Amino acid sequence: MNKVVGSLILLLLSFATAYSDQFDKVRCGSDIPKALMGQRASNERVVVIEDRHKALGLKDLGANEISGRLSAVWWRICGAEYVLLEDDHVRDVLPFPSHSRDAPAFTGTCQINGKNVRDVIIAVLNNKAGNDPLTASAAWKIDQQRAKFDKVATEGLLCPRSGISTADGGK
User: Hey, which of 22, 74, 99, 139 has its CA 20 to 30 A from 123?
Assistant: First the structure.
């Protein structure tokens, strides 16, 4: 009898963990970055995750591979946009400012005062017709060693159009 009960408990636990993901603790109106930090990243199909979390208005907005182990994953959660820095867990969360064709989202490499920045930059650019590279209104670099977003001063920061999000009118 004890073996049967033990087997049932293990089976129930395996089902519970099979369907858990980084969004299980998220509630609209709460501290979303805090709820996501440290959670195990799911490798399920996106449509399954979105369907399970309909109450959050969850929408996958794409991802960028930062390194062989680290990705920047963009989500709309509770009507706001967030970038999750993930390996097998959520390592950092960036509430991303609104962006548009005139102020597009950017991911890539940039220059500061004419020198190449080795880190991947995530930014909101100032899209001025005829200008390339573009200045930024807000920017963060991805510290791959610490798996963290670090705010970057925008003075002297120039980024190429090639890293603009296609949804914002990029190439």
Answer: 22
